[in-house]
Design goal:
Blueprint (H helix, E strand, L loop, with lengths): L5 H15 L17 H20 L18 H15 L2 H5 L1 E3 L5 E3 H7 L2 H14 L7 H20 L15 H8 L5
Antiparallel strand pairs: 1-2
Helix pairs in contact: 1-3, 1-6, 2-3, 2-6, 6-7, 7-8
């Protein structure tokens, strides 16, 4: 089965561009994620690459939520690029067809999961942009897709304590602002 991972790769490219734009002294800045710095956000998304690789290979999944800065020691951009490269190498056609558990929804092929996984690097790209004073405008196409995914996965993420309660979006808000409010963020 062929998988369209272009959105996934575009979200990773966007995130990487923001990582590259963080000033050397910007990694300790607080982020919109309670208790996390910009380095923690970058570590969480970098750890997500190790998580995807584990799903592709059947290895144990790392905990990407506890102490996420451990995934980006030293040079954050270099750590990110190395993790991304290792993950990409694991995404063979067989790995993309591999069924993985998807919470209470059963199993789905890894490639299908990655088509929706853009939510993770996309929303954390916004978090990183906000934490480090970079432009926080996201690709509207990716936002549209990610918002649809968020509506499917939010309840279980909130139940696990990984997502804040939704906030009201301002009247007439654009889709990015509505998605961020749904995810508990004030744009």
């Amino acid at each position: 089965m062929a998988h369209n991972l272009s959105g996934y790769h575009r979200a990773l490219d966007l995130f990487e561009g923001l990582v590259a734009g963080v000033p050397r002294d910007g990694w300790d800045a607080p982020s919109p994620c309670a208790g996390w710095t910009a380095r923690d956000v970058a570590g969480h998304v970098t750890g997500g690459q190790f998580l995807v690789r584990a799903l592709a290979t059947g290895e144990p999944e790392p905990d990407v939520n506890s102490g996420p800065a451990r995934f980006v020691p030293g040079d954050v951009l270099m750590s990110w690029r190395a993790a991304r490269k290792e993950c990409a190498a694991s995404l063979t056609p067989d790995a993309l067809d591999r069924p993985i558990p998807f919470g209470g929804l059963g199993e789905l092929p890894l490639g299908d999961f990655l088509e929706g996984y853009i939510l993770e690097p996309l929303v954390h790209a916004w978090d990183l942009a906000r934490a480090t004073g970079q432009p926080a405008r996201l690709d509207p196409d990716l936002v549209h897709h990610a918002f649809a995914t968020a509506q499917v996965v939010a309840a279980s993420l909130r139940a696990e304590g990984h997502l804040a309660p939704p906030l009201p979006a301002p009247r007439g808000a654009d889709e990015q602002t509505r998605m961020l409010a749904f995810l508990g963020r004030t744009a």
